């Protein structure tokens, strides 16, 4: 019984994360300012990270967790670089 509940919960979570990804993509496309687009990109990589974690739990595979760590690292660096570019106009001084 608990296996069925876990699988349905993971499926429902993946559906909700997919909807959150679509909302983030919409904000990235329509966002009125560059700051809104950067925040949407930040939210998008966090949602992608969570989606990979739920896929890793569902498939019982460790590769998804490694990919999630990689996306987390690259997403953080990308957000910092884009924020620095917006503040100063250059990334590397």
UniProtKB/TrEMBL annotation:
NCBIfam families: PRK06161.1. It comes from Devosia crocina. One of its GO terms (cellular component) is plasma membrane. Keywords: Antiport, Cell membrane, Ion transport, Membrane, Transmembrane, Transmembrane helix, Transport. It is a multi-pass membrane protein. The keyword Magnesium does not apply. GO terms for molecular function: sodium:proton antiporter activity. The chain crosses the membrane at residues 6-26, 38-57, 63-87. This is Multicomponent K+:H+ antiporter subunit F. Belongs to the CPA3 antiporters (TC 2.A.63) subunit F family. The lineage of its organism: Bacteria, Pseudomonadati, Pseudomonadota, Alphaproteobacteria, Hyphomicrobiales. It is found in: Cell membrane. Pfam families: MrpF_PhaF (PF04066). PANTHER family: NA(+)/H(+) ANTIPORTER SUBUNIT F1, NA(+)_H(+) ANTIPORTER SUBUNIT F.
């Amino acid at each position: 019984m608990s296996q069925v509940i876990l699988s349905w919960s993971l499926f429902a979570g993946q559906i909700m994360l997919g909807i959150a990804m679509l909302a983030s993509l919409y904000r990235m496309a329509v966002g009125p300012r560059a700051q809104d687009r950067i925040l949407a990109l930040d939210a998008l990589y966090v949602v992608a990270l969570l989606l990979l974690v739920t896929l890793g739990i569902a498939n019982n595979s460790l590769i998804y967790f490694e990919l999630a760590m990689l996306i987390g690292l690259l997403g953080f660096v990308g957000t910092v670089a884009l924020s620095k570019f917006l503040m100063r106009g250059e990334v590397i001084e």
